[in-house]
Amino acid sequence: MGDAEARVVGAGDVISVNGKEITLAPIDMKQLYELQRAALSYYKREYLSTYAENLDLLPKKQASGLLEAKLEEVAKWDSSNLPLKMSFDIRNFEVTDKLKKRLEGIYGDIPDGQSAKTAVLSTALDSGEIKPEEVERLTGKKPRRVRIPYDMWWVTAVFDGMVAFVHASVSVNSQGITRDEVGRWPLAKVMEAARVVESLTAPVLGNT
Q1: Which pTM value belongs to this model?
Q2: In the chain, where the domains are located
Q3: pLDDT tens profile 172-189
Q4: Phi, psi of 108, deg, nearest 5
Q5: Contact 77/36 with Cβ under 8 angstroms?
Q6: 54-106 pLDDT, tens digit each
């Protein structure tokens, strides 16, 4: 059985978290749909929060009417209303010691493995915690920008999304790990796991 085929049938990858081996498996379309719904809910909340903040300068009565109309509009949104987000292609990107030190200043200790360092860098860029210009200054190479669907950005750049994504993966093999437990993993490990699940799930998406 080839690597891609093994992943499709759920072979997955094993990572170590706090000394315990955890199997990450590709997630199925039903789980992806649930994650997309969760991403949509998150997007709606963030959109309405920003919209409400921008109404502060208007008279209260006018602002209230506009907000009520916007609430009705947003309530009707579905996944087709999700925007594209900017992301970064950092495949084969070398995380130098200087860059690793800068990332640890944001997130704390990062494992030495290349996959962990790359995962943290990717999430830091996607979330805006570090700018591509700073990465270029520290490494001599600038990450390439790409556009990705909002829900895929959410599960690899937003903490709540990463936790939901990883939990969906560990649940495939019924390992008895709750979402709250995943949320208590070291942050760098959550980031790494989310990127592993992303790579595992890609072949599944390619066969649907």
Answers
A1: 0.81
A2: 3-40+83-206
A3: 988 889 999 999 999 999
A4: 90, -170
A5: no
A6: 887 778 878 888 989 999 999 999 999 999 998 898 877 889 999 999 999 99
